[in-house]
Structure formats: structure tokens, C-alpha cells
Amino acid sequence: MNNTDSRIDLTGRRVLVPGGTGTVGEGVVRRYLEAGADVVVPTRTQARADEYRAILDNAGTDKLHLVVHDYTTFAGADDLVDQMTSNLGGIDDVIAPIGGWWAGKRLWEISETDWQNAFVGLATAHMAIARAAVPRITAEGAYVVVVGDSGGWPVPGSGLVSMEQSALMMMQRVLDAEVDESKRIFTFVLGPVNTRSVGSGEVTARQVGSVAVAASASALPGRVIPLHGDAEVEQAILLFEGA
């Protein structure tokens, strides 16, 4: 894999990572901290914030800003972005690995609770952050929606995930069509990811973070970036560097 991304310096860059306490988000947060960025990670409880800082260990420098906050509503996301802007002076990038997996029922077997949790709730959280942050990110800022391959094909028994991820992919396309050239909207499409809790996958959480860091340092216009294995990670980083 190309290692030039390890030399990227994002000192002074202000990055919001909703979903950063998840296992994919952890890799993203680590790479931005290594690059010198100020990284804001919202979490719902102080206990979770303390646990997460312990997981990061020495990586959790004074550049890590853990905020106890529920960003999953429109009002909550507005408040989070207001706080970040007030405390850090602005917001440059957003990397959004928000979400999780849901499985076990065919679509005609789902309950209203399933629908609210696996589709409505997650889609609302993504929309809330995008609505609040996209108008506020600085010129040349990058907004990255992180989705899984299930957005591109039906997964029997996990249809709500497929539907929600597909909706997010269209959200990126619409946002990219609506913003001017000073803002860049990406989708990272992931296959299985090797994380702290899952020891096998096509890419590692750290590699996802490396591509995100390269996106922030680049001027490449928004687009869909597939990340399935070392070759596509290498290709993505070279693409960002070339821009």
C-alpha cells in the first residue's frame, strides 16, 4: 500500500466524525489525529466517552474532542455543529460512518420498531448531520458519507439495511449536485471491514481513515469511492494525491 498518506499534515483542520466511536469510525479518528487535525467525536454518554478514550490510549491526544451529545435529530445536529463552530472556530470536514447492521426478517415480517430503528432512525441521523454541516463546512471542505456494499444489492433478511444504505448513496448524489464547486461530497462504499472487533475483511478501518485523510488534503471533486481491498485503497489515495 502507498504510504505517502502518512506524511499528510492536517494541523489546524477541524474534522467532525459522527459515528466515530464505532469500530470503523475508530480507524478514521486515529488517522486524523495522526495527521494533526482537531477531531470532534460525539457520543451519547460520559461513560462511553471515557471508554473510548481508553481504547484510543496514546492516540487520544488533546486534539481529540469528545462531546457528550445526541446528534441524531435535526435540532441535536444543529446544536452540535453550533458548538463545534463556537469552540473551534469552524468546521472543515465531516466523515460520517454512522450506522450498524440489522438482520433476521423478511420485509413483510418487520415491525414498526424495526422500521424506525433500522431505516428511519439511521437515515434521519445522516440527514440531520448533512443538513446542519454541509452549509457550514469551509471552502474546499469534504463531506464523506460512509456506506456498505448492501446499498447496491438486495440482502435477503437485511432489506432495511440495503434500503437505508441505498438512500444514503442517493443523498450523496443529490448533495453533490446541489453544492457549488467549493464543497466536495463523497461516498465511500465499503466491503467487509477488518476492525478491532472483526478480525477479517477486505480493508481495515485504518485504511478507510487513510483514504478520508487523503480526501481532506485533496481538491478532488466529490464522487463515489469504492474501497474493496488494498488495490482500491491504493488507487483512491493516488487519485486524491494526483488532484
What is the CATH T-level topology? Rossmann fold
Give me the number of helical elements.
7
* CATH architecture field: 3-Layer(aba) Sandwich
Mean pLDDT: 93
Report on the biggest sheet: 7 strands, parallel
Helices and strands, in order, run as EHEHEHEHEHEEEHEH
Number of individual domains: 1
Tell me the helix content.
Answer: 40-55%
- Poorly predicted tracts of residues: none
CATH superfamily: NAD(P)-binding Rossmann-like Domain
The gyration radius over C-alpha positions equals 17 Å
Kindly state the number of beta strands. Answer: 9
Apparent shape: globular
User: By helix and strand content, what is the structural category?
Assistant: alpha/beta
| CATH C-level name | Alpha Beta
Which tags fit this structure?
single chain, Rossmann fold, 20% strand, 243 residues, two-stranded parallel sheet, 9 strands
Characterise the protein shown here.
The chain has a single domain, classed as NAD(P)-binding Rossmann-like Domain (Rossmann fold, 3-Layer(aba) Sandwich). The chain has helices spanning 23-34, 46-56, 74-88, 112-133, 159-178, 205-217, 230-242; strands spanning 14-16, 38-43, 64-68, 91-96, 137-148, 183-190, 193-194, 203-204, 224-227. Strands 3-2-1-4-5-6-9 form a seven-stranded parallel beta sheet, with helices on both faces. Strands 7-8 form a two-stranded parallel ribbon. The chain is globular, with a radius of gyration of 17 Å. The model has no long low-confidence stretch (mean pLDDT 93). By secondary structure, it is an alpha/beta fold. It is 44% helix and 20% strand. The protein has seven helices and nine strands.
